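writing this on my phone so excuse typos. first protein, seq and then structure
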Amino acid sequence: MSDEILVNITPQETRVAVLAAGQVQELVVEREANRGLVGNIYVGRVARVLPGLQSAFVEIGLERAAFLHVADLWEQRRTTALNGRESRKASSINGGENGKPEPAKAIEKMLAEGQPVTVQVLKDPLGTKGARLSTQLSVAGRLLVYLPQDPHIGISQRIEDEAGRAALREKLKQLIPADEQGGFILRTLAEGASDDELRADIEYLRKLWRDIQQRSGGVNAGIQPPKLVYQGLSLAQRVLRDLVTDRTAAVQVDSRENHQKLVAFAQAYMPALAGKLQHYTGERPLFELYNVEQEIEKALARRVDLKSGGTLVIDQTEAMTTVDVNTGGFVGQRNFADTVFKTNLEAAQAIARQLRLRNLGGIIVVDFIDMDTEHHRAAVLEELRRALAQDRTRTTMSDFTALGLVEMTRKRTRESLAHVLCEACQTCGGRGEVKTARTVCYEVLRELLREARAFKAREFRVLASQSVCDLFHEEESGALAMLSDFIGKPVSLQVETDYMQEQYDIVLL
């Protein structure tokens, strides 16, 4: 069945849903206030060089200075690559003797405070960390990635056939203009592209790079760093470039103005896709019509219900994401082993889909229900591999470990859906739990004793939530009275309706 892509655009945010067989497979949200910076090119100014860390901080106009490590300097990368080639050449000529490599330069030899430098964002700012930068620039097209500084031809790792890789490399060499000083990387979509399509992408990228060069000409071009000279495509434009395939039947856009802009963009750079763009004019909201809003709510929940009655419990932490598979209400019809096997098979498909929906990255550990039969374990692993093969993001997985777990990694391409749409609970601080009223009562008693020994006061007043004060008036009234007698001071209670259960203050009177 053909895929369909839905694009919901408002002035504040753009949301994209990819449907296959009528079911939502991927969700992407981009907000104007937090639009990603990866791929943006700036003329920045070196704010500080740190020889001890072999890194520098560069001002590019953001709230925090961005971070540039010596390994991300193009001059350093070029030296490393040349040394590798010279070493291999000398080894082949001298029977294994190494050539004399060019010594790597220290960052303080290449950068100075106040120096303008053209940089590209590798990673968005995250938490207290600034953006990660590189001086090796690249510009992505639909089929190719252009490397203006590096005369190199690369092939996407997802194209695994060695004969096909070699043929593509030779094909691209024939299409590159003779005056080209840079290089290209063929993206996965280029595997079945025609010569005309590749040639059009090459021309588009070369023209785009000439425009960037004109805008980043430095002070002589009237640019005072820091200055943004190239911004990556919007989410709607990236959808056309990256997500639309031959299987895509239609791309529905619910904004007339943006539909016209996308049609103009497609006609200029991807004429074959212009006919797939449709303007949705229905009365019902586009995402509501296709039940995407419900899928978003489900993708934020910790528990995922399987059709059989089994469940997945997904927990996202700083270190990794864990997925626990349970039979839940599924009792099966034959025996326990068959019930477990069927639940695990269904879970394998659901896990792959949830990884895409939630955009979970990094280390992922799956705890399938224990299976005694080796045949069943192999079948579950094969089903999981098959389901993961549909993922556009690179994913690797292992066999079952000694503890019966399946470990995998999924490349982080952007923030997870939960990190984009949610924030840590102000009541529990992101723990998912709050202290009981009784626990808080005992904390209050210990704090009263500590303050009575540290300060001389006529009276102590406890400001706390309704539930804590109610417990002190009822079951813990004796404990409060006993403490009051022990410290020799009266203790009063005052309800603060805006206090959360864990909040309290002690006022000295």
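second protein below, same order as before
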Amino acid sequence: MANNEHTEQPKRPHITFKSIMGGDILAHKFLRRQTNLVILIVILTILYIDNRYTSQQELIEIDRLKKELTDIKYDALTISSELTEKSRQSRIEEYLETENTGLQTATTPPYVIKTDK
């Protein structure tokens, strides 16, 4: 009989699908010993998901800002070309003629005044 006592192994409860679905797995000795590890893994998983979500939101914001920057650059280029077109001498002369301001383009060249310093 002493031989039988040494050869018998203690009965371990088997983990089955029914025990997992029924919640019996939570009372299992292994899980109770590893509670801190399970909590750490859950916390790290939540932090990982949060970090990924935050980085995706930042990438969306970066793409939106890049598009907005491109639009603003095109607007600035358009305004600059319009200003260049409107500030040409021929356009200014046309504007002055249509508005009847009485101003005319000078027919004599400007004088250079030299001073003694």
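The chain has one domain: 14-98. thats all i got for now
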